[in-house]
Amino acid sequence: MTSHWHVPEATDPPPHRPILSMRDVRRDFSGAPALAGLRLDIYQGEFVAIVGPSGSGKSTLLNVLGLLDTASAGTYLVQGTDVSGLSERQRAELRASLFGFVFQDSHMVGRDAAARNAVLGLRARGIALSVQKRLVMPALHKFGLAHKAATPASLLSGGERQRLAIARAVIGAPGIVLADEPTGSLDTVNGGLVLVHLRELHATGTTVVLVTHDPGIAAAADRVITMRDGLIVGDTGSATVHSDAPVTPGDSSASYHLARRIHHEAADVVADALSALTVRPAKALLLVLAFLLGSGGLVAAMGLSESAAVKVSARIDAAASDEVRATREGGYASWDAVTEDLQRSKELSSVLEAGVLAELSAAIVQPSTFRPGSFPEQPVFNGAVRVADSAYLRLQGATISFGDASLLDQSFGGPVAVLGQDAAIQLGIARPGPGVVIWLYGEPVPVVGIIENPGRDPMLPGSVVVGVGSYPVTSRVAASLVLRTDPGMPAAIAEALPKTLSPAETGAVTVQTVADLRDLKHGIDADLGRLVGIVSIVLLAIACLSAGTTMYLGVLARSSEIALRLALGMRRGPLAGMFLLEGAVVGVLGGTAGAAVGMGAVLLYASTEGWAAVIPWYAALWGIGAGLASGTLSALYPALVASRSNPAQLIRA
Ligand SMILES: Nc1ncnc2c1ncn2[C@@H]1O[C@H](COP(=O)(O)OP(=O)(O)OP(=O)(O)O)[C@@H](O)[C@H]1O
C-alpha cells in the first residue's frame, strides 16, 4: 500500500496503458447524479478497494466498470476500447470474457447444484464441457466446497454461498474480478476467508476491485479509492508494477468460443425452462390444466361440429331428389320385421330399390383387428359401424372390390363385414380373404369385401358395414328403410309409405325427405359444436391471462437469477427464449392432454347419442397447436420483461 495521493491529470504522461479508464463519467438516476463526473484509471494486477459513505456511488461505479450499467455521459475505455460504441451483445460478450463478479447477496440459481452454479459463467462464455469438468472440482475444492458439489445452491449456508460466488467468479481465470461488499453478509471468520481467497487470486495476476465498508479489508488493498457524493475524493494511487500485456484468461483452453456458447445457451435454455417447471410442479400443473380446458374444448367443438355436419350432410346428399327414408317408432323387434317392411315398400310403384341401414355405436361395438385382450393398447376405431344390406349399397351407387356385396344379405352362420377404404386402412386390412376377420363385440367377423366407390354416401369410406344376414339383435333394431324412387317421386312415396307399412297406425312410421333433412342442418347438434367452440376460446383466453400473470410473477420471483445470468453474459434473446420455452412447454402439455380429453368427450357424446363420431385427423394437431400458441403468447410479456431488465437494477433490488 502506498502513502501518496495520486490523482492523475490529463496532461500526465501515461505511464502504462490502463485496462479500465474513465473520463468525466456520469451516471444520473432521474436527474440526480450517482456518479458526478469521474476520472479513474485502473491498471492490470491492481488490488483496489473502493470506500466511502453509504450512497456515495460505490456500487454504481462498480456496475459501470463491469458493464452491468451504462454511463449517462463521459468516456469509458475497457482495454482501450470505448464501450459506448459497443452493441448490447458485444458488451455482454466482453463482460463474460473479461470480468468475474462477486455480489453482496451471492446470487445463485437456487435449484441448481453448487457445481452447476460454479460453471455458469463458463457456460455463458462457451467453454467446452470437458474444460468445465476439469476446472469445477479443483475450484470447489479450493473454496472448501468439494463435498457440496451436488447440493442445490439454495441449501448452502451464507458463507458457503459466498465462497461459491467467488469460485464462480474466478473459475475461468477472468482478467478482472469485481466484488461488491463480498464480506458484507458474513461473520469475521468467513469474511477473513473470502479476503484470503481474493488476495491469492490477486497474487496470480488478477486485477481485483472491491467495494467495502470494512476498514480492515480496505487496509489489505494496495490502493484505496474514497468516494463522496458521486466523486472520487481520495486515491492512494497505484503501487503495482504495471504490465502492458493484454489481459487473457489464465487458462488458454478456457477462452471464449461463440459456437459453443450458443450451444450451451440453447442447452441451458431448455434445461432451465424444464427445471423451472419441475421445481414448481403444482404451479406447472395448474397452468397445464388451464390450457387443457381451453384446447380440449376446441378439439371437442371440432369433433362435435364435424360429427353433426357429416351426419346431416350425409343424409341430405343421400336424399337428393329420389330418396325417401322411413323409420318405425321404437324400431324393429327382429330382422324378419324389417324384411317385411322392405317387401311392402318395394310393392309401391315408383320405388326402384329398397335397402336397410342401421347405425351402431362404434364405442360399444369396438371394431378391432386384434382379439380383445391380445394387444395391450388397442387403437380406438374412430369411424362408423353400420348394418346394411346389398340393396342399400346398390341404391347408393357404391361398388365393392375384392368381394361380393350379396354376402351381406346371407345368413350362413354369422355376420360378415365389408369395409370402407379408410376404415380398412385404419384397421390395417389390405384385402379380404379366407381367415381375414375383424373383431366386433369381441367376436370374429369375416371381412368379405372392400368398398371401392362409396357412391353418394360420404360416410361409407370410414364405415365398417355389417351384413343384416344373421346380425345378432340384442335389443330392438333402430333400422331405417332407404328407398330409391323414380326421379321427383319422393313426396308421393312419403305420403303413401306410412299407409302401406302401418295402415292401422300411420303415425308409427316417420318418413324423411330432403325437405325435413334440411331443417336438421340447423339442429342443435351443430349449435352445440359452436357453443363449445366459443366457450373453449374464452377458456383459452382465460388460460392465457392466468398463465401470463403466473409467469410474470415467476419472472419477478426469479429476478436474482435473471440478474445473475445477465451479469455473467447471457444474451437477452436466449433469456427471453427461456421463458417463452417454459410457456410453450406448458402449453403443449396442456394442449396434448386437452386433445386427448376433447376427443374422448366427442367419442363419449357420440356414443350416448348413437352417432358415428367423426373426429377430423387434424383436430389433435389443432388442440396441441392451440396449446402451443396460447402458452407461448402468455409468456411473451414476461419474457420481454425478463430480457429487458437491467442487471444492475435487479442486483440492487
Ligand atoms: N437504479 C437506481 N435508481 C435510482 N437511484 C439509484 C439507483 N442506483 C443507485 N441510485 C442512487 O445513486 C446513489 C448512489 O448509490 P450507490 O448504491 O452507488 O451507493 P453506495 O455508495 O454503493 O451505497 P451503499 O454503501 O449504501 O451500498 C444513491 O443515492 C442511490 O439512491
What shape does the CA trace take? elongated
CATH topology of the largest domain: Rossmann fold
Bound molecules: adenosine-5'-triphosphate
Mean pLDDT: 82
Summarize, please.
This protein is an alpha/beta fold.
Give an overview in words:
It is built from 21 helices and 20 strands. Strands 11, 12, 13, 14, 15, 16, 17, 18, 19 and 20 form a 10-stranded mixed sheet that branches. By secondary structure, it is α/β, with parallel strands linked by helices. Helices cover 46% and strands 18% of the residues. The radius of gyration is 39 Å and the shape is elongated. Residues 29, 34, 52, 54-60, 649, 652 line the site of adenosine-5'-triphosphate.
Could you outline the blueprint of secondary structure elements for this entry?
Blueprint lengths: L19 E10 L2 E11 L4 E5 L6 H8 L7 E6 L2 E2 L5 H11 E4 L11 H5 L1 H6 L3 H14 L15 H13 L5 E5 L7 H16 L3 E5 L3 H6 L2 E6 L2 E5 L22 H22 L1 H38 L4 E6 L6 H13 L3 E10 L1 H4 L18 E5 L1 H6 L3 E3 L15 E4 H7 L9 E4 L2 E11 L9 E5 L11 E7 L4 H12 L7 E4 L1 H7 L3 H34 L1 H9 L4 H38 L9 H26 L2 H6 L1
Helix pairs in contact: 6-7, 9-19, 10-16, 10-17, 10-19, 10-20, 17-20, 19-20
The structure holds adenosine-5'-triphosphate (ATP).
Give a quick set of tags describing it:
single chain; alpha/beta; ten-stranded mixed sheet; 46% helix; 18% strand; binds adenosine-5'-triphosphate
